[in-house]
Amino acid sequence: MSWVPLGDEAVLGYFANEAAAVRCTRALRAINPPWLVDVVPAYASVGVFFDPAQMRLTDVLHFLSAAEEWTGTEATPTSAPPAWIARIPVCYEMQLDMARVCDATGLNPEAVIRLHTATIYTVYAIGFVPGFPYLGYLPPPLCGVSRLPAPRLRVAPGSVGLTGRQTGIYPLPRPGGWNLIGRTPLVIVDVAEGFFPLRVGDQVQFERIDERQFRELEGERLPRPHRAAARDEGGAIADEFAS
User: Fold this and answer.
1) How many whole angstroms separate alpha carbon 227 and alpha carbon 154?
2) What is the DSSP string of 61-126?
3) Per-residue pLDDT for 75 more than 80?
4) pLDDT band for position 67 (cuts 50, 70, 90)
5) Rounded Cα–Cα distance for residues 238 and 126 (Å)
6) Do 40 and 147 reside in the same domain of the chain?
7) pLDDT of 224
8) Which carries the bigger pLDDT value, residue 218 or residue 72?
């Protein structure tokens, strides 16, 4: 683990793996020192933003470096909240690219769906539009499917896609190049009302529904857990992972 300055009001930590970065994020949020403004994790890095009127950069670096035992690799304070598992219904009949995924993996649609729903994913980053969760990692048989040769100009909100080792949910109607294998009826982002229920470190498991159930649930919001001193990450951008 290493910490480096990121301007004069933030530092950036690099970790050995994604799990260590998530543990650091949970630990910092649980302790919530008065000088802390925000914690923005993305995969194996964590940005820590602080109030320079309350804490000098050198002191923040010293604090974080000295606290490696609870921010880095092994331990997390017992007061840190456990990961939230969001159960997200998906209608896999509402797909556009299942045939492409099957061709790339050698699996049939039922096997793709079974593997996709059997895995509990971790939110490792929020990017390229507000609230898009980058979820990892796909089970090995589903890995390696490339993006579309050309991105679609518009992907319907709620569309569930995959590419490489990741899966994710398009929260807003935007262009996108991931392979779409289903769609959730739930709203997972409402920018106008500041609704961003998912954040880095949460976990997600998809549950299969049919089209009738999709219509019954359409427009409902993903239930948001009660979080103490929760910090909104809806606007955090991970440009390098954009679709």
Assistant:
1) 33
2) HHHHHHTHHHHTSS---TTSPPPPEEEEEEETTS-SSHHHHHHHH---HHHHHHHHHHPPEEEEEE
3) no
4) confident
5) 7
6) no
7) 81
8) 218
Q: Do 172 and 90 share a structural domain? A: yes
* 144 belongs to a structural domain: yes
Together in a domain, 98 and 169? yes
Write down the residue that tokens 């219509």 correspond to.
215
Amino acid identity, position 160: V
pLDDT at 152 over 50: yes
Same domain, 47 and 96: no
Asked whether residue 10 carries a pLDDT value surpassing 50, the answer given is: yes
Q: Are residues 55 and 130 in the same domain?
A: no
Q: Give me the helix-helix angle, 98-105 and 109-118, nearest 10°.
A: 90
64 and 173 belong to one structural domain = no
Q: How far apart are CA 221 and CA 197, in angstroms?
A: 9
In a domain, 12, yes or no: yes
* Domain extent for 34: 2-71
